[in-house]
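Notes to self, Tetratricopeptide repeat protein:
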Amino acid sequence: MKKVLLTALAAASISVATAQNSAVNSAVLNHKNGTLDKAQADINKAIEHPKTKDKAKTWFYRGVIYQDMIGNPIYGKLVDDKTPEVVLESFNKTVEIDGKDGQFGKQVPERLQMLYGQVLNQAVEFHNSQNWDQAIAKYDLASRVNPTDTTAVLYAAYASTAKQDYPGAIKYYDKLISIGHNTEDVYKAKIQLMQETQASDDALFATVQEGLKVHPNSVYLMQEELKYYLKNDRADEAMARLDKAIAADPKNASLYAVKGNLQERKKDIDGAYASYKKAIEIDPNNFDAHYNLGVLEYNKGSEFNNKAAKMDYATYQKKGKGLEAQAKKHYEAALPYFEAALKAQPEDRATLQNLQRVYTRLGRTADADRVAKQIKQ
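result:
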């Protein structure tokens, strides 16, 4: 009798386990047939039952079923905004149980890539409607789905900036740098946001130095470094660094343009002229060198004009016309530099404004009006 009883109990146990496994199998079959509501009901039962809740197959199909309901025209209403989280949890649990190379674990990467696309699309929709909080939440989730991805993190930084959450945006730029997306633009954006939040000079300088290690020839970063050196009476250090960089890379026009800028700040105008002209010699399309030479010439012209304007009538009659003639020569010299700068960067507003001033000074009213229209566009 004891043997018969044990056999009966074993049979009952097999029956219960089979019943629960059939819930998973039924979920799989209903998913295959496209009846996702039934598949959802079956997999929800299986995920709660002690006999199947620790099975990789259960978790994998939970993820698959819920994922395929996202955006489904019929069954999409049965899931909510938290569904992508459920899907991610399910696939992570699948790998935890089955390993990366198991029957179900090895299918997860493709499904995660699909989930990443779904979540990113949701984020973009919120972004386009300027719902920044929801967009950022979705970008965060997309980044969790694919931790090595940079797109979601970058756009989270953009959304945080648009929301004017500058400290939040800085954290996203830090994350980008940490995962290898350390472009010059990333450092530039971070520095500008740090300036908006009135970060300390030392913190800014540390970020600039970090950026220069990756982008040693970045004009923007070198200029920011120069600002720090000059503000802290360290111009000689800046010049020494520039000269060393030029010695290592003598054909780099940008380095000469930055050196010219530093020489201007140190009131070495002749040296600045020489450096800017060297930059143009190396790179005839160098914007900074053309623009700054235009400014130097324009400012010289203005100095002569201002002297003439301050003269009394008698002095002006003797010397004023000569000063104005000298001013005109410098305005004429500035013109080709500003025109070349505009050719290099056709949308630069400061260049357009300076061109308008030069044309006006030279009496070229039609050209001044033409540029004024460009500025207003």
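- The chain has four domains: 20-145, 150-199, 201-275, 284-377.
- Confidence is low (pLDDT under 50) at residues 1-20.
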